[in-house]
UniProtKB/TrEMBL annotation:
Residues 399-890 form the TonB-dependent receptor-like beta-barrel domain. The lineage of its organism: Bacteria, Pseudomonadati, Pseudomonadota, Betaproteobacteria, Burkholderiales. Pfam families: Plug, TonB_dep_Rec_b-barrel. InterPro entries: Beta-barrel_TonB, Beta-barrel_TonB_sf, Plug_dom, Plug_dom_sf, TonB-dep_rcpt-like. This is TonB-dependent receptor. One of its GO terms (cellular component) is cell outer membrane. Keywords: Cell outer membrane, Membrane, Receptor, TonB box, Transmembrane, Transmembrane beta strand, Transport. It comes from Glaciimonas soli.
């Protein structure tokens, strides 16, 4: 834990006294909220470009907004390119073209033309978003976390996500990041992405960058849009409806009220519906041999003689999804799951703005979002401790009418590893709701631009069992009493017994809350020979709470849920911060940004983080920029307090002590030690310490001709004491190094491995972002535009222990994921009168596969490069009506085969590939008034 410095006591005094009086409400979130236009950069960006870098243009570094004329009758609208606005990454209002920071702007109207329907899909087109946790990635997890972004591949907990410049509550079941599913994309105007460390401006989490979702400031009229997406292959269809309405002119009436309702639904895709996943865990194309030892025709172990067998083995394990494995049978369980879950989301966002006077506005904003994710996985595994004791073991005895079917003639008790397929597949429903209320005041007083606000944000989540989960003690009793048949179909009594033992209800719930007050003020405080000296100051107080409730009855009844033997936990913290910034014109066309922030956490101590950035524009067509900053991330309440519980490993492993190289040692039970899904303990760790980071960027923007802009930015990031979990595959691959993570039974068999959060050492990454934008002239054939957003990573390495060796993760599957060497999105657009067309390509390079638990011929398997093409056309020739139609994944490119097995889904990696395939979409938007 960090020690409290002397400054923290003074900080609390300021918060409780003079600071509260002097500043009123205190601030956080100095992000751009009210950017009215693309400013000077819009002159050089390609029309319709989906991801556009905010670049410099024609403006001189010393320019400011024009002064208002003396007589109101003579007031003229200022040139939009010269209006002072807040730029992402700064607290000081300025001409947009003067930013020294690498910012990408994604216009929502352009995203809609490519068939993007969710915030998740929008960010997948961003090259700096190295990895992401998608809704599909939730399949098979014990806690459904939704979808998240991950700039630079540093983890979603290092990307700060904001709405209109202020924080959202993190997802309750992944309290380290925001669930992107709560963002109502139909209410957005644009998405701004700062590809730079920004802890000096925004505080914790902003190490990898900042994503700011910005809604419309005001709206009048009534607008309805509807969209449908229909894949060529079975499953995965989507529909979206958005209704937006607003009334009141802010300038004429002095107020505006608007709101939007956004509804989205997607149907599930079964693994059997796609070629890439239909092979399940036994895939000759990737070399995986991941069939489960938990079979619907049970494998048995004689607790007296040590003999093993399976009655279906002699016939080739010819039951559905059966696989021969020596004298046993295995079950290809992955063939039975839904690889894309059924999802339903609805979001409501409203905003009311009152114009107090010509310079000041009062606004109220409310967001409500709720989602349901229904997952479907294989029937539940049933296993005991192989003791032969019916109180703790899944065992049958010779009095069972099904004993003879085993093929054993000894009459000894038989421990069975059995999968309750007869009871149905396991079905979960994950429920998430988010509520956020903001009251804000912004404007100008005595020459100071200010904004202040109060925020209440809450995220709730609860996961329900909807069938296929059983009371373990009831299953053990049913086997011992001869009611359940572990070797074949159930009779009426067995079916009724399973139905009675089925568990339903909420097994875990969580609530996270954030309450904050913020204040920021900025102005020009002096005029230097080279221009105006800008100054900003601000403060924030924030209170965070998290509660995690475990249903003790369900947790005790069924170990596969993932919450046993967890208990309910809770945590809270108070956060206070003060920050300041200077915009210093050193000489003509050379500006410097100086920023600093002090944060104090009641549970992690204090931290001071500075930032310096330079912008030099030697000529109108050329700009250089660079920055250096330190960063800080306090462990989230979830990382600290998530209830610890047991669940099955995602993949099957050999006990490295009792079954080295897949061969059981004398006296060991192969059914227990070889090729098993073992138990692992997961959850929080209250002994975590904060992370620290250093970020350096250096870049240039060049405009060789007026219609072309090229940018190149270098980034270098190092994180110290990064919080993460050791990948389960690493634990089983190196039992000596991770000996302290193994928990064994008295007889030496493996009980479970510990896989909770730890400070694992450092992570280093560096590379380049490349941007290109061309806006062609208007011709008789129309107007063309072309853009490219790309990221090339030159280094990514990490430690799995403090002071340990660095492990390469670049273009190699390691530490639970690969880092792509190159990713890009290229967009070509055309417009002519009421017609518009867009063709977009996304591309990522390949990498060395996981290559664990595969046949010898695939130990060096390489996952190929992956690319998709989308095309769409839009027509606006009808009054108030916009029609769009297109094709996503024109060439029906399937996911690249991968032998990854530690993300539950097999055959491909759901985080980086889309299994939907070619899909057709139509969209209609009608503005009633």
């Amino acid at each position: 834990m960090m020690k409290e410095r002397g400054l923290s006591k003074s900080l609390r005094l300021m918060f409780s006294g003079g600071m509260a009086v002097g500043l009123g409400l205190m601030a956080h979130s100095v992000l751009a909220q009210e950017v009215q236009a693309q400013a000077a950069s819009s002159q050089i960006q390609a029309q319709g470009t989906v991801a556009q870098p905010v670049l410099l243009a024609q403006a001189d570094g010393t320019q400011t907004a024009p002064a208002a004329p003396a007589a109101p009758a003579a007031v003229q609208k200022p040139d939009p390119s010269m209006q002072r606005v807040e730029i992402t990454g700064s607290s000081i209002r300025r001409v947009a073209s003067q930013s020294a920071l690498p910012v990408t702007v994604m216009k929502v109207e352009d995203l809609a033309k490519t068939g993007v329907t969710t915030a998740e899909e929008a960010l997948q087109t961003l090259s700096a978003n190295q990895t992401s946790f998608t809704t599909s990635s939730n399949v098979g997890t014990s806690k459904t976390a939704g979808s998240s972004a991950d700039l630079r591949g540093l983890g979603a907990n290092h990307t700060l996500v904001l709405l209109n410049g202020r924080r959202l509550a993190n997802a309750a079941f992944d309290g380290s990041s925001v669930d992107l599913n709560i963002i109502p994309i139909g209410a957005l105007d644009r998405i701004e992405v700062l590809r730079d460390g920004a802890s000096a401006i925004y505080g914790t989490d902003a190490i990898g960058g900042v994503i700011n979702f910005i809604t419309k400031k005001s709206y009048t009229g009534l607008n309805v849009s509807a969209e449908g997406i229909d894949p060529q292959q079975k499953g995965g269809s989507e529909k979206r409806v958005n209704v937006s309405g607003g009334y009141g002119d802010l300038d004429a009436d002095g107020w505006n009220v608007w709101g939007t309702v956004d509804y989205h639904k997607q149907s599930q895709v079964l693994g059997s519906n796609r070629a890439i996943s239909s092979a399940g865990g036994v895939n000759p194309n990737t070399g995986t041999t991941e069939a489960s030892s938990f079979s619907p025709v049970a494998n048995w172990f004689d607790t007296v003689t040590g003999a093993e067998g399976n009655p279906a083995n002699a016939s080739g394990c010819n039951f559905a999804h059966g696989v021969v494995a020596g004298t046993a049978c295995r079950y290809n369980s992955q063939q039975t799951i839904a690889i894309v879950p059924d999802t339903e989301e609805i979001s409501v966002l409203g905003r009311a703005t009152i114009k107090l006077n010509e310079d000041n506005n009062l606004s109220f904003e409310y967001l409500h979002s709720q989602s349901k994710v229904n997952t479907l996985i294989a029937g539940e595994p049933q296993v005991g401790d192989f003791s032969g004791n019916p109180a703790t073991d899944t065992v049958i005895n010779s009095s069972s009418p099904y004993y003879a079917a085993s093929g054993s003639t000894t009459g000894n008790p038989l421990s069975v590893t059995w999968r309750s397929v007869a009871g149905g597949q396991r079905m979960n429903q994950a429920n998430n709701t988010t509520d956020r209320f903001v009251a804000a005041l912004d404007g100008t007083i005595a020459g100071w631009d200010y904004k202040t606000g109060a925020v209440f944000a809450q995220s709730k989540a609860w996961d329900d069992l909807n069938g296929g989960y059983f009371d373990n003690s009831a299953i053990r009793a049913g086997l011992w009493d001869g009611i359940i048949n572990p070797f074949g179909a159930q009779n009426a009594a067995g079916t009724a017994y399973l139905n009675a033992a089925d568990l339903y209800g909420t097994y875990e719930s969580a609530v996270t809350k954030t309450e904050s007050l913020d204040f920021t003020a900025s102005r020009t405080i002096a005029t230097l020979p080279a221009g105006d000296l800008g100054f900003a100051i601000g403060a924030e107080v924030r209170h965070e709470t998290a509660e995690y409730d475990v249903n003790d009855v369900l947790a005790a009844a069924d170990s596969s849920i993932g919450t046993s033997p967890g208990t309910s936990t809770a945590g809270s913290r108070n956060v206070g911060a003060i920050f300041s910034e200077l915009d210093v014109p050193i000489v003509k066309n050379l500006d410097m940004q100086l920023a600093a922030r002090y944060d104090h956490y009641s549970d992690a101590g204090g931290t001071f983080n500075p930032k310096v950035a330079l912008r030099w524009q030697p000529m109108d067509s050329l700009l250089f920029r660079g920055s250096y900053s330190t960063g800080f991330r306090a462990p989230s309440l979830y990382e600290l307090h998530d209830p610890q519980g047991l669940t099955f490993t995602n993949s099957s492993y050999n006990d490295p002590v009792q079954c080295p190289n897949g061969v059981a040692i004398p006296g060991a039970n192969a059914s227990q030690a070889c090729g098993q899904q073992f138990m692992k303990m997961q959850g929080g760790n209250e002994n975590l310490k904060p992370e620290k980071s250093n970020t350096f960027t250096l870049g240039t923007v060049f405009e060789p001709v007026k219609s072309v802009t090229i940018s190149l930015d270098y980034f270098n990031i190092e994180i110290k004491d990064q919080v993460s979990v050791v990948p389960e595959a690493d634990i089983f691959a190196d039992p000596v190094k991770y000996a302290n993570l193994y928990v064994r039974n008295p007889n030496g068999s493996l009980d479970y491995v510990i896989d909770t959060n730890y400070n694992l050492g450092n992570t280093k990454t560096q590379g380049f972002d490349f941007g290109f934008a061309w806006a062609g002239p208007r011709t008789d054939w129309g107007k063309f535009g072309l853009s490219l957003d790309g990221t090339y990573v030159t280094k990514y390495e990490y430690q799995t222990e403090i002071g340990g060796p660095y492990i390469n993760n670049l273009a190699v599957y390691s530490n639970g994921n690969p880092i792509f060497r190159w990713r890009h999105t290229a967009t070509l657009n055309w417009s002519q009168g009421p017609w518009n067309a867009v063709v977009q390509q996304t591309f990522q390079t390949g990498y060395q596969d996981e290559n664990e638990n595969v046949t010898d011929g695939f130990v060096n398997h390489h996952v190929g490069a992956y690319q998709t093409f989308n095309a769409s056309g839009t027509y606006t020739g009808f009054k108030n009506l916009t029609l769009t139609a297109g094709i996503k994944n024109i060439f029906n490119t399937g996911p690249q085969p991968s032998n990854v097995t530690d993300n539950f889904q097999y055959g491909y990696d759901a985080r980086y590939n889309d299994p939907i395939g070619r899909a057709f979409f139509v969209r209609a938007n009608y503005k009633f008034f």
